[in-house]
Amino acid sequence: MLFLLATVFAHLRSTKDECSDINDCRRLFDIIWSCLVTIFLCIWVSVHPNVPPPTPARPGKGARVWNRVKWSLLDGNRPLLHRFKLMVVALIAPELIIGLAGKQAIMAHAFAHEYDVSFTHGFFIVMGGFVDANGHPIVTKKQIMTGNVLREIKAVPESEIEDKSKGDAFSKGLAFCQGLWFIAQCVARRAQHLPLAELEVATLAFATINALTWALWLPKPLDVRTPFKLSVTSVPAGERRLFPYSRGGPTPFERFELIFTNLYALYEYDPLSNVAVPTFWCAAYEDFQIFSTVLSMGMAVCAQLLCGSLFGAIHCIAWATAFPSIAEMWLWRAAALVLVAAPLILIFYAGLEIQTTLISDAHWQVALIIVASTYSLARIILLVLPLSTLRSLPAAAFRDVDWSVYIPHL
């Protein structure tokens, strides 16, 4: 949809306004295509989903046509839909994905250090890659220390885990080179005092945040469809579990907090009553508090919020850029400032909650809702404006970079 909208804008401009010399200029379509390809490749390669729930069995030969079509379009493609959900979040709120990646990296390192396994094993535990004989994901310290679970995890070679990964050096290298080339173009344009289109500034912000996400998730196996099933049970003797939750599941506000913090209490998610981890699972809250000795939960969340401010700060590069209208200019500036300030306000408010008793949980929830709503509105504005401003770019935006000035010659 975004591509179709951008293509329409491309045809609204005449070739005469875009460029008088094709060798020294670029077309509007070139700008749009470069940005969209960069965004797609960065998000596609950086997003590493957890192991999805088991795919339902294919309908038999005697099944109805509708059941076969439904399986082919939906049920059989659940892993792809699982990944697509994360990609949509990475497009709308990339700071949530980098927060998930950072906390998963912390827990993977903690599991690897605690149980003397590889970093890949640690990530595979965090992402729900090991299940017990009953099909329950083994993702908590209590499960790992039950019976012979740890011994069976260690018996799985790291090479077999890596073999399940669908990522390869070519696809990751292609995305890395495209992102690097795009960043180099943006830097060169600023060095030669050439303006960047608002879409290019937004793409630069996406490329930067997704590069950090990609680095954090680099050791994590990509697009694993099926877990390793161990021959042992991870249910401690004498314990009973209710399916799926012990008290009706989390409230809507708690679900929002789970997407933000990625930490689940037992009443919110019980691995011994489920067959897969949630999409935004990082760890059980108790395990994170035990293992995260170097980076506590507060520091991890602060780092996530600071990345949100960085995302907004990059949009400020277009502060003095020519906009088609005064209203769009001030909308862009206001939205960029909101992206910078809102995460910092949450950090300050969270610090007050920790240091004093003046702020109750109810006040914190109200503050979180207000800041999140304002931040979401600003994100929507900065998703629409990069496309709407394509209708009237300054003439200098179509001048290409003179790369010859950087090439030594006689």
Automatic annotation (TrEMBL):
<feature type="transmembrane region" description="Helical">
    <location>
        <begin position="199"/>
        <end position="217"/>
    </location>
</feature>
<keyword id="KW-0812">Transmembrane</keyword>
<keyword id="KW-0472">Membrane</keyword>
<feature type="transmembrane region" description="Helical">
    <location>
        <begin position="294"/>
        <end position="318"/>
    </location>
</feature>
<feature type="transmembrane region" description="Helical">
    <location>
        <begin position="330"/>
        <end position="352"/>
    </location>
</feature>
<feature type="transmembrane region" description="Helical">
    <location>
        <begin position="31"/>
        <end position="51"/>
    </location>
</feature>
<feature type="transmembrane region" description="Helical">
    <location>
        <begin position="364"/>
        <end position="385"/>
    </location>
</feature>
<protein>
    <submittedName>
        <fullName>Uncharacterized protein</fullName>
    </submittedName>
</protein>
<keyword id="KW-1133">Transmembrane helix</keyword>
